[in-house]
């Protein structure tokens, strides 16, 4: 033991030493040496190459970067006075300002660069990267060696990094998803502090230059102010978000910290915001509310008392800082003007600035988001130089890129409206051209089109295509004599507009004879390539064009492959430029084409792969099982069989609803092509061909690829562009992640079978820089890439040294200008974006031609019509010159009536169309007129209309309807006294809402007494069909039983709800009794008692009724007036007809016509409001004369009234003149005609023949009849009208009589209302009191009912708790069992009162405080009881330790039951307290209810007195009732009394009704008596029946209980028993039991075999042990023999010499042998235990670890006495014994 302790102590010491050493090493490691650097080769990312790829790692060598990601935030930093750095994709570019040379650093992660920062000392700069767990790398400058690597600051990417003022701490902020703000001790690569910056994107974070512990961060819709605070747990970052308040929330790009802790930030709308704390103190703007900058504004510096700002408007401004800093927060805005201003440019958008590192320098370098870097001198002096643009680049995504087929020239275009040409061999820009619209596509014409290689085809976003010539302007110097600037120039050769949408693709045919252009307007236009490009025509395609691909020379036919963005592919035959095209349009209908619509097969590919994988896995498992069976042939086959695992469902076939976008494609063979898709279908290249069923609709047809090629790691990174090397042995692919892949291909591999291995390099930005353009130079020495991040890279295929040698004498050659170019005029450009396209212009020309032809035809028709009209007029004139008997009538001149009808129909249709068009305007004008009329006539029914009879002077006039009394309508008020019923409903609702929580809280049964661990549900066991059917039937049976029981419960609940309570009285009876009492005390029923409001309503109703009757009569009079107007019109027409008839009659036959009635002005007073245009014109003239002073002074004084009077007078005079004229035209005309008629008759009479005389006589008879008929009709019409007027006049007189009675009644009602107003105030006050008492009584009643319900619930809860307490005690007794010797101890433990801590809620109510005080007093009493209990037993009861001999489980169960008992006792005590409180509250409410009822009774009595007095006063009013003599029966001795003051005026019908009512009441009284007798008898019978039913129910319950005890042995809940359904869990457990039994039987069988093997092994070991024992016995015998021999020999040598020694040796040998025997006994015992364990448990138990015994030392013998052979024999035996022992 001492050795073991010493070894353990040594181990502990060694462990402590190791820990101390590790801590020391870690401490040394923490202190990084200042001269430690990382190796660039180990950090920087490299190209990724697949293992089987033979492409060298250094395939592409970066040559130059021609782009600048100007849209990235803060993408410009200054290392020293001449070196700028910025991010370009996966590169960091170091740009020398003076030499324009570039150096590059690659991203270490390969995922891109997020942000950069420069150390204040300019000795270091930081590159924060993007990718999975990106790093922050600190480089030393100018050695560019990695100095420090900071790890673990964010998950995906860094968005900003910055140093503090001293440069000791670095702050970094991550982007989505964590937005982590981290402060670094960057020299030791340690994180100082970190926390989440915000939940949205953070643009910037910086330290305050004045307060080291303050930081500020800003971003999307927020600004946050940070403070490094020391807390008790250490240094923490505490941030406060700025609140915009009433200011609109804005994204904040930039800000400046002020010395006093304030912050000035920019905004989206161009104003500055000054933050004080976390709120906006003031908003700074220019005067008159103008913004500080147009667009986004960023403050960037505070210098020389000026706050410097930049904006997206390209202006730098300086603001007076003192005024800003002292601005008061009273006003929300501070208006001021800038002190200094510098306009950098008009097309400039400044986003960030960096200052020159020289001290006291005013030079700043600015980043222009429109693609430039500026040098600014912000000294704002008279000698300040103008802003200098150092570098200019493209802004935005590169839309088009192509290279020259003859030289190392490259052309690009973007949406910034620029087209640039670069010499990528010399690494410089040659020329730039700006246009009005952005470029969207570009192609360099092949040498077949332009031998010199200087023609560019560029498409723009307005649909224009421009042909640009590139030439060297220096070659024109010899001709023009001028020396132009630059080595290259672009000249517009031709511009045409084939499309109305952006041009997306341009491509030349393989022979260079046709140019095809594609657009987003779903058209492809073809042009014939000539000196001037001639349009051939266009075709329409199913979607926006993505790319155009002409068939190569290897194909027999010349076809164009059109790739559409929505997945459609169209192949068209090259059109023939020589064919004649239709002149109406450029659309080509006869071009043969084939179409393909991509159908997704990716899900099917994935499904097939999954099937193959599972099949391979099955085959592998099958082979493995077969090998296991071969190795274990002696085992039973059935034992080795394994259950097959259930296979998961295969992934479903999915086709996206929105088609995946098509990115690129190319021809493989004629009719076949490869496609690269995006979206869901990315990750594969699809080999497609055109289907045969081309006649189907392309929208309905779905074409599937016939082959596919998986692209590694491209499921979310599709291929965006393809390009082949000139020998087609390399395929270069641009991916959406901005990386470039190079695949080596075999010659002639159209199926891309060799496209397996690849070389890949991340070039552009991985997030927003898809590589859209990848091209090779004409000699395959360069690869150029362009992406959406605005970067353009050139790579060389050779190392720089070899490239320089091979191109030592070569340089890019700019084509020479054409001959005569200097004399040519500039081509016309299309500058208007809304200019017509070629097709639109042609359609317009065609429409103009058609319109001109139509106009010519119309002119010819009109000329013909004019001639016909002239001829027709001549015919009419000739007809008029003919005698009358020969002259043709107008009817006879018409050719055919149908022509006239057709023309009328057409005219009516046109009129209807015009009316439809003008319907809205007509309705608007009519509504305006109606509003105007309503405005000028407030009471339209106030005008009186008088209708006069025609023959008599009788007349009838309309009423002047009384307008409703404004005093009555305005005084009508809504009763402000709330309804007691409503209050009662509200009280009931409150009571319900208060009772429900009480019910929820009283649901004690649902509470868990003891918290239980969550039950884990085992996996479901599959049941058999029989078990499932049994469960289903049991569930159905339980559901039916449950439904039946629920229905029965509902019926019982309804019965109990309908059961009246004790002392219940029918409310209808109570109401009838109350009404009877009121009828007895006062004859007016309560609801019939009148008040001011009701009387006012009666008054208004009566007025409305009078008004309604008057309006009805007015309507009838107006209708009569209208009939008179129609009659006068009809009479005039008949008079005219009569005049025509009398013109043809002899004077002696003519009867005088009746006098025509006239419409009098009083009959049409509304005509005063009607006026026509002449009247309005006259009114305007009169008004102008009044304004000009031409009218007399009286007119000026009266104003517009005088004008209206004058105008009315003139209108009357005009009407009179017209009537006189009509009368003059009437009679003299007739006489003159008669005279002429007589003259002609006399003249013709001398010459007339007998036939003519006969005809004249017939005509005379007919005319006489017609004259008589007309006169009779006129007479009858006049008579009928007069009769109608007389009848209506009589009816109006009767109505006048009735209305006069109504007026008398109206007067009476008004008097009653005035009388009621005198009582109104007293009645309202009493009524308000009564309503208050009623509300209070209802509230008390509801509270009392609520209190009773809560008390009932409380009593039920107490009963339940007591039942649970009894059940708990019974459970404790059951757990003890019988004859338990610890029963007394456990009972004491169970019943012991334990003091437990209570959590008391603190509430503000005094009652609850009193309750809590009472609770505390009770707790003190309980504590006393607890102490007394402890003292009664003498020694205190120790319940913390289980007594010896008692079961621990029983003891713990007793403690748990005691806890549950104590819980129940606490709940019971709480319920008792609650019950007592409820009882006290109920008593208080009962007292309050009695008091309120008495007060209510007093108020009701007072109200009844007022009502009686009011009714008495009303009865005293005089009422006018007109009576006739036969209606008066108040007489004495058949004589009428002169004094009728005592008479009663009664309606005869009312009198008869009252007499009938007396008889009805007598009969009703007898009926009620019979009902009372029957009800009493029924009540007695129901009482007897209830007693009988109670006895019967008691007997049945007893019988039911006996049956339950007999069947179940205890009382059970029959409803619960009926609702029991089959337990699926029980069936599953049974099934699981059977499965487990089978499994265990199988396992037992295996263990039996193992036990048998162990038994055999044990027998073998026992046998070996027995043999060993035999050998030991023989050795012992030999030893004894040897000892005997030895002793005999020793005796011979001398007994005394060896006696002591022999004894000691013998004892030692005996001890050793004894130890050997003990060891063997232990081994035998261990073997026996192992056998027993194996037989009982079936597990293999290793033998105990026994220490190996030391070998027996040989017995010492004297030298020379034992022979050598004997010694050898003894040694062998000893060695054998040691082997046995081991």
Architecture overview:
This protein has 1782 residues and is α+β, with helices and mostly antiparallel strands. 44% of the residues lie in helices and 19% in strands. The protein has 28 helices and 62 strands. A five-stranded antiparallel β-sheet has the order 1-55-54-53-52, with no helix packed on it. β28 and β29 form a beta hairpin. It is extended. The two termini are 24 Å apart.
Main features:
1782 residues, extended, 28 helices
Straight-line distance between termini: 24 Å
Q: In percent, how helical is the residue content? A: 40-55%
The pLDDT mean sits at 81
The total count of strands amounts to: 62
Number of helices: 28
Side by side, the strands of the main sheet go 1-55-54-53-52
Q: Major sheet, described briefly? A: 5 strands, antiparallel
Q: Structural class, from secondary structure content?
A: alpha+beta
Strand content: 15-25%
* Gyration radius over CA: 59 Å
Uncertain runs are: 1-17, 637-643, 973-980, 991-1019, 1081-1087, 1193-1197, 1226-1246, 1399-1434, 1738-1770
The coarse silhouette is: extended
């Amino acid at each position: 033991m001492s050795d073991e302790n010493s070894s353990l102590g040594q181990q502990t010491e060694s462990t402590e030493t190791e820990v101390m050493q590790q801590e020391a090493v870690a401490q040394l490691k923490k202190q990084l040496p200042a001269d430690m650097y990382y190796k660039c080769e180990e950090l920087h990312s490299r190209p990724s190459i697949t293992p089987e790829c033979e492409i060298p790692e250094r395939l592409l060598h970066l040559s130059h970067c021609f782009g600048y990601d100007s849209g990235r935030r803060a993408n410009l930093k200054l290392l020293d006075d001449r070196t700028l750095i910025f991010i370009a994709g996966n590169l960091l570019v170091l740009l020398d300002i003076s030499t324009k040379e570039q150096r590059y650093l690659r991203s270490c992660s390969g995922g891109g660069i997020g942000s950069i920062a420069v150390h204040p000392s300019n000795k270091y700069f930081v590159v924060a990267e993007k990718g999975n767990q990106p790093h922050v790398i600190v480089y030393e400058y100018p050695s560019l060696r990695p100095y420090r690597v900071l790890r673990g600051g964010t998950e995906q990417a860094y968005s900003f990094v910055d140093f503090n003022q001293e440069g000791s701490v670095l702050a970094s902020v991550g982007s989505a998803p964590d937005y982590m703000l981290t402060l670094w001790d960057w020299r030791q690569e340690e994180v100082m502090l970190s926390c989440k910056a915000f939940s949205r994107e953070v643009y910037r974070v910086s330290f305050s230059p004045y307060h080291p512990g303050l930081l500020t961060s800003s971003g999307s819709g927020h600004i946050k102010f940070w403070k490094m605070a020391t807390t008790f747990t250490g240094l923490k970052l505490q941030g406060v978000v700025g609140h915009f308040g009433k200011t609109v929330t804005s994204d904040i790009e930039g800000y400046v910290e002020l010395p006093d802790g304030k912050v000035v930030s920019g905004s989206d709308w161009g104003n500055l915001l000054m933050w004080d704390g976390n709120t906006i103190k003031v908003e700074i703007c220019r005067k008159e509310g103008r913004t500080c900058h147009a667009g986004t504004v960023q403050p960037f510096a505070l210098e020389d008392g000026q706050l410097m700002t930049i904006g997206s408007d390209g202006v730098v401004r300086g603001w007076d800082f003192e005024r800003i800093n002292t601005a008061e927060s009273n006003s929300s805005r501070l208006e001021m003007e800038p002190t200094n201003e510098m306009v950098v440019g008009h097309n400039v958008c400044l986003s960030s600035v960096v200052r020159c590192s020289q001290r006291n320098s005013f030079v700043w370098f600015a980043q222009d988001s429109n693609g430039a870097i500026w040098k600014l001198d912000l000294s704002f002096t008279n000698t300040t130089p103008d802003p200098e643009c150092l570098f200019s680049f493209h802004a935005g995504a590169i839309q088009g890129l192509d290279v020259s087929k003859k030289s190392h020239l490259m052309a690009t275009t973007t949406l910034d409206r620029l087209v640039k040409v670069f010499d990528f061999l010399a690494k410089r820009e040659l020329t730039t051209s700006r246009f009005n619209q952005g470029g969207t596509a570009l192609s360099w014409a092949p040498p077949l089109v332009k031998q010199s290689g200087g023609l560019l085809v560029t498409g723009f976003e307005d649909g224009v295509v421009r042909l640009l010539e590139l030439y060297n302007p220096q070659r024109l110097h010899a001709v023009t004599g001028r020396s132009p600037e630059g080595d290259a120039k672009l000249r517009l050769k031709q511009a045409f507009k084939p499309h109305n949408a952006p041009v997306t693709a341009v491509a030349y045919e393989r022979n260079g004879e046709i140019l095809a252009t594609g657009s987003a307007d779903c058209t492809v236009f073809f042009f014939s390539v000539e000196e001037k490009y001639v349009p051939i025509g266009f075709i329409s395609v199913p979607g926006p064009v993505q790319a155009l691909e002409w068939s190569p020379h290897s194909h027999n036919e010349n076809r164009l492959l059109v790739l559409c963005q929505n997945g459609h592919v169209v192949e068209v035959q090259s059109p023939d430029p020589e064919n004649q095209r239709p002149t109406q349009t450029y659309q080509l209908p006869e071009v043969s084409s084939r179409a393909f619509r991509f159908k997704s097969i990716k899900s099917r590919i994935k499904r097939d792969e999954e099937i193959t994988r599972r099949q391979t896995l099955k085959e592998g498992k099958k082979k493995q099982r077969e090998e296991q069976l071969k190795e274990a042939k002696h085992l039973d086959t059935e034992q080795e069989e394994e259950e097959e695992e259930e296979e998961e469902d295969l992934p479903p076939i999915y086709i996206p609803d929105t088609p995946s976008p098509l990115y690129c494609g190319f021809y493989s063979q004629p009719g076949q092509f490869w496609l690269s898709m995006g979206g869901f279908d990315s990750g594969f290249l699809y080999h497609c061909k055109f289907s045969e069923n081309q006649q189907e609709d392309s929208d309905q047809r779905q074409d599937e690829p016939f082959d596919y090629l998986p692209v590694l790691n491209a499921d979310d990174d599709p291929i965006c562009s393809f390009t082949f090397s000139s020998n087609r042995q390399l395929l270069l692919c641009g991916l959406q992640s901005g990386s470039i892949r190079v695949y080596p291909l075999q010659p002639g591999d159209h199926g891309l079978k060799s496209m397996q291995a690849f070389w890949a390099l991340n070039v552009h930005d991985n997030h927003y820089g898809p590589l859209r353009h990848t091209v090779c130079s004409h000699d395959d020495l360069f690869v150029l890439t362009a992406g959406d991040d605005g970067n353009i890279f050139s790579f060389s295929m050779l190392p720089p040294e070899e490239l320089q040698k091979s191109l030592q004498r070569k340089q890019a050659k700019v084509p020479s200008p054409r001959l005569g170019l200097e004399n040519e005029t500039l081509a016309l450009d299309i500058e208007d974006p809304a200019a017509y396209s070629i097709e639109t212009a042609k359609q317009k020309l065609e429409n103009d031609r058609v319109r001109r032809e139509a106009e010519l035809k119309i002119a010819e028709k009109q000329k013909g019509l004019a001639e016909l009209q002239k001829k027709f007029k001549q015919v009419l004139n000739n007809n008029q010159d003919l005698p009358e008997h020969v002259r043709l009538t107008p009817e006879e001149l018409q050719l055919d009536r149908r022509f006239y009808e057709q023309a009328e129909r057409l005219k009516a249709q046109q009129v209807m169309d015009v009316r439809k068009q003008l319907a809205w305007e007509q309705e608007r004008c009519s509504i305006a007129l109606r509003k105007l009329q309503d405005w000028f006539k407030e009471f339209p029914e106030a005008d009186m209309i008088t209708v006069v009879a025609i023959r008599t002077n009788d007349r009838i006039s309309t009423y002047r309807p009384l307008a409703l009394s404004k005093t009555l309508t305005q005084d009508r008020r809504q009763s402000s006294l709330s309804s007691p019923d409503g209050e009662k409903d509200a009280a009931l609702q409150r009571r319900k809402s208060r009772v429900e929580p009480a019910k929820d809280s009283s649901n004690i049964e649902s509470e868990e007494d003891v918290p239980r661990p969550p039950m884990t549900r085992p996996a479901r066991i599959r049941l058999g069909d029989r078990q499932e059917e049994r469960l289903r039937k049991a569930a159905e049976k339980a559901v039916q039983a449950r439904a039946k029981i629920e229905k029965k419960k509902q019926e019982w609940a309804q019965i109990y709800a309908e059961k009246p309570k004790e002392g219940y009285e029918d409310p209808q009876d109570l109401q009838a009794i109350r009404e009877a009492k009121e009828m007895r005390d006062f004859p007016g029923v309560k609801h019939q008692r009148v008040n001011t409001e009701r009387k006012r309503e009666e008054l208004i109703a009566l007025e409305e009724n009078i008004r309604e009757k008057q309006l009805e009569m007015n309507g009838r009079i107006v209708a009569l007036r209208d009939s008179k107007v129609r009659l006068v019109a009809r009479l005039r027409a008949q008079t005219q007809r009569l005049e025509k008839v009398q013109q043809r009659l002899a004077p002696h036959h003519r009867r005088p016509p009746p006098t025509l009635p006239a419409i009098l002005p009083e009959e049409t007073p509304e005509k005063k409001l009607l006026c026509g245009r002449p009247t309005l014109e006259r009114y305007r003239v009169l008004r102008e004369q009044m304004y000009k002073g031409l009218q007399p002074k009286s007119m000026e004084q009266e104003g517009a009234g005088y004008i209206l009077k004058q105008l009315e007078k003139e209108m009357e005079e005009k009407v009179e003149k017209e009537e006189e004229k009509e009368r003059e035209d009437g009679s003299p005309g007739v006489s003159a005609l008669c005279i002429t008629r007589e003259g002609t008759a006399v003249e013709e009479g001398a010459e007339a023949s007998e036939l003519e005389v006969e005809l004249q006589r017939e005509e005379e008879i007919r005319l006489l009849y017609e004259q008589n008929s007309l006169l009779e009709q006129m007479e009858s019409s006049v008579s009928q009208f007069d009769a109608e007027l007389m009848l209506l006049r009589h009816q109006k007189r009767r109505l006048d009589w009735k209305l006069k009675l109504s007026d008398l009644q109206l007067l009476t009602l008004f008097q009653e209302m005035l009388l009621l107003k005198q009582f109104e105030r007293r009645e309202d006050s009493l009524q308000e009191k009564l309503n208050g008492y009623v509300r209070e009584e209802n509230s008390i009643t509801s509270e009392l009912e609520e209190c009773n319900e809560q008390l009932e619930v409380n009593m039920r809860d107490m009963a339940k708790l007591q039942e649970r307490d009894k059940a708990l005690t019974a459970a404790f007794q059951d757990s003890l069992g019988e004859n338990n010797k610890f029963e007394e101890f456990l009972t004491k433990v169970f019943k012991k009162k334990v003091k437990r801590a209570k959590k008391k809620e603190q509430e503000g109510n005094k009652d609850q405080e009193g309750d809590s005080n009472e609770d505390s007093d009770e707790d003190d009493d309980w504590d006393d009881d607890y102490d007394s209990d402890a003292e009664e037993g003498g020694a205190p009861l120790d319940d913390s330790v289980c007594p010896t001999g008692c079961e621990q489980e029983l003891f713990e169960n007793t403690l748990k039951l005691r806890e549950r008992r104590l819980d129940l006792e606490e709940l019971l005590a709480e319920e008792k307290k609650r019950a007592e409180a409820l009882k006290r509250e109920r008593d208080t409410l009962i007292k309050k209810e009695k008091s309120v009822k008495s007060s209510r009774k007093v108020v009701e009595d007072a109200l009844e007195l007022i009502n009686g007095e009011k009714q008495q006063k009303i009865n005293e009013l005089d009422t006018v009732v007109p009576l006739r003599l036969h209606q008066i029966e108040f007489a004495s001795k058949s004589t009428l009394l002169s004094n009728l003051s005592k008479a009663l005026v009664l309606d005869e019908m009312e009198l008869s009704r009252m007499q009938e009512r007396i008889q009805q009441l007598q009969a009703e009284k007898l009926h009620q008596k019979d009902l009372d007798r029957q009800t009493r008898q029924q009540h007695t019978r129901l009482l007897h029946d209830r007693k009988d039913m109670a006895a019967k129910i008691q007997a049945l319950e007893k019988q039911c209980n006996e049956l339950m005890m007999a069947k179940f042995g205890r009382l059970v809940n029959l409803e619960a028993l009926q609702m029991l359904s089959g337990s699926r869990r029980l069936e599953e457990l049974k099934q699981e039991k059977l499965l487990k039994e089978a499994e265990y039987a199988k396992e037992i069988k295996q263990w039996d075999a193992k036990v048998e093997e162990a038994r055999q092994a044990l027998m073998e070991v026992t046998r070996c042990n027995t043999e060993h024992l035999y050998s030991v016995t023989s050795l012992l015998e030999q030893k004894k023999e040897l000892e005997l021999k030895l002793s005999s020999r020793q005796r011979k040598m001398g007994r005394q010499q060896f006696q002591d020694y022999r004894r000691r040796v013998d004892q030692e040998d005996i001890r050793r042998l004894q130890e050997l025997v003990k060891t063997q006994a232990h081994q035998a015992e261990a073997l026996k235990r192992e056998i027993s364990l194996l037989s009982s448990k079936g597990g293999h138990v290793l033998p105990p670890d026994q220490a190996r015994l030391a070998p027996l030392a040989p017995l010492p013998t004297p030298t020379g006495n034992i022979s050598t052979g004997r010694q050898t024999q003894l040694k062998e035996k000893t060695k054998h014994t040691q082997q046995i022992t081991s």
